[in-house]
Amino acid sequence: MEFSNEHFLKLKEKKKIAMRNAQYLYALSSEYMNIKKQYTDSFYRRAERILNCLSYWEWDRYKINKVLNLRKVSRCKDVFCPNCRSVNVYKAIINFTPAFNEMMAYRYNPYLMTLTVPNIKREDLSSEIDKMNKAFIKFWRWLYKPFSKNGSYYGGYKERLFDSKGAIKVLEVTLQRSDWNYFNIHFHVIVFLENEFPGDFFKKIDGGYQYRTKSFIYYSDADIFIQKLWKMAYDKKDISFFSEASDDWQDNYVCDIRELSMPKGIYEVFKYCFKDLDIRNQEIFRDLCDFPPTMYHF
Ligand SMILES: [Zn+2]
Fold this sequence. Notes:
The protein has 298 residues and is α+β, with helices and mostly antiparallel strands. It has 2 domains: 1-81, no CATH class; 106-297, no CATH class. The protein contains 7 helices and 12 strands. The longest helix has 28 residues, at 37-64. It is globular, with a radius of gyration of 22 Å. It starts with a strand and ends with a strand.
């Protein structure tokens, strides 16, 4: 796979970010000096690798001048290296393509689903991610198409609006603009559906005014359905209580499901797990270090 220089036009900007992140890692390294020696060493090595990774890129760029062959470039692969991160995004999309094509061949329809939870204190990042992953497993079982395996029958929630056949979920963390002590965490999920009714996805229910987008938003029956399921899964409730769950979006968390626009939607999902701009200081960087190293879950 080859990438033209166009993808790296922002190289200067990326270099700045890489250098800044390396500085943060050096700072963390000294912070742990008298606490945990192995952390000191590992943060230091990561900082060094990010800086070296960049020099390879520069060298390669000037030498070839037209096209970069990524297979030949030695990379640090650090989550805080902006170059490696964009390469990872492209690689993840390429890896996802066969599975995507297979789903399309089976005539499953791709949808884009977003699942959020209330903003959390920054220091709770890793425990919150853990909680969300557990909730997703529960949530997924309810939506999954029934199947038999080794003589046992596995069914989902009987009243579900559609059957889900496969999904890929990507976690995104953003900084709360109004208070930097909080993170917003959410999942972007590409989900493949079968037996869905288009009318369930028509957005007609008043969802109030959203300050972030400065617009009035509307929900569909499918949105309300996944809002209820997601809140129940997050609250560790049993599905038998579904009829008692509130239909009001204000009692649930912001969730949305819509048809996946191609290829824009794919890039939307894979693009970034956190924004470099959000790393405003050393403390935010430290809390983001709890971010899981694997970004994509197939
Ligand atoms: Zn790198």
